[in-house]
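Regression check, D-malate case 471:
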Amino acid sequence: MPTTSLLDAIRAIVGDRGLLTDSTDTAPYSEDWRRLYQGRTSAVIRPATAQELAEVIRLCAETGTPVVPQGGNTSMVGGAVPNEDGSELVVSTARLNRIRDLDPTDMTLTIESGVTLKAAQTAAAEAGCLLPLSISSEGSAQIGGVLAVNAGGNNTVRYGNARDLVLGLEVVLPDGTIWNGLRRLRKDNTGYCLRQLFVGSEGTLGVITAAVLKLASQPREVAVALCGVASPEAALSLFTRFQAHDPNAINAFELMSGLGMSFVLRHIPGAVLPLETSAPFYVLVELASPRPNAGLHAMLEQVLEQALNTAIVQDAVIAASDAQRAAIWRLREEHSEAQKREGASVKNDVSVPVSKVPAFIRQATATCEALIPGIRVVPFGHMGDGNIHFNLEQPAGSDAAWFLARDHAIMDAVNEVVQAFDGSFSAEHGIGRLKPYMMPDWRGGAELALMQRIKAAIDPGRIMNPGKVLP
Ligand code: MLT
Ligand code: ZN
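Current build output:
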């Protein structure tokens, strides 16, 4: 357990503002967004600089005190909350929130880890650039957490995952050393690529304190449509039509189910379906171009007209204004929140090859319905890159605790289907505390052994985010 003298020493480094010890203050840092874990901690440390953080981590290493790094606390897998016994200290990156540099010629943004993704996007936009990463929780999620889990989100189909945007990193290592790798080079072949080791390591190898991110050109034309379709198969046909037209124009291609949409319409104030009739599934397609008159609107019209004529699409609406575009995106982005308000859910963040998405959804749906009669299947997500949030809502009127007690059985059944399609059980949310038990099945043998050796080499005292990622 962290001793009073350790906390006093930490207070001497970060000051009163940098240390929360009152249980009312630490409570929000101890529970995850999904409320799966109610942890406990004797202190939340909020350093203002990487130097302060490094000194704190050095003390934790010397005393063998475990540390849980936390950004916006939006993890879907309990990756950033302490355990229940109160032995772990939380390190919040919230005060590391400076934008250190933005270079529109190099097209780079050098930024501290506590800046929210939304604020980082805004900074890029103000300089006429685009930070091409967008996730539903971007208003709260912080850059450090986004990189630590290698977030994906809505624009992966075009720009790749968070990993693909990182040129450099600054990391406080588990012994308190600061590794300054904040280079902004497009070419840099100098031994092992250390930054990529930390991206996706979920705070188990160190705390990311700053990063250099690659920027893109700001789109000058954007066109968004919402389409009602009969099935995921129809959604895939629509995707291949857009691909055939111009694969580089596709900025996002998101799938939603009729049930998921009904939850949004029921629980999210102001949400309205802008189509005349409801549909079994919906697609949100966004096209974008850095050129001002790229003809995207016409392209959207042309593809959708053909799709309507061939019954691939049942109904469609093209946003006529920025406000309509935002309203359509809101229907997609509020899916998680609406699902939470509807009741208890089990989430599977999986990926399969894009061509296999419809068959996967069909088979996984049948599997879950056979497992728990009345279970409500809510598949949605990033169809354009093959990442489906295959979420399951408790049967209407059932007991939430009864349903959640079946979470492993449900996840394991879905994962069997994912495996049959050569997919991944962890596409963009990470492993956190929820899924380490799955690792031996999926990454057993040499791969997991190598990960264990890397962990032992970098964090021999095993103080960084214990119980996360590795079994
Ligand atoms: C999203 O894309 O909205 C989140 O990653 C999803 C989720 O709730 O599973
Ligand atoms: Zn997602």
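Comparison notes: The first strand starts at residue 19 and ends at 20. The mean pLDDT is 97. No diff flagged against the previous build.
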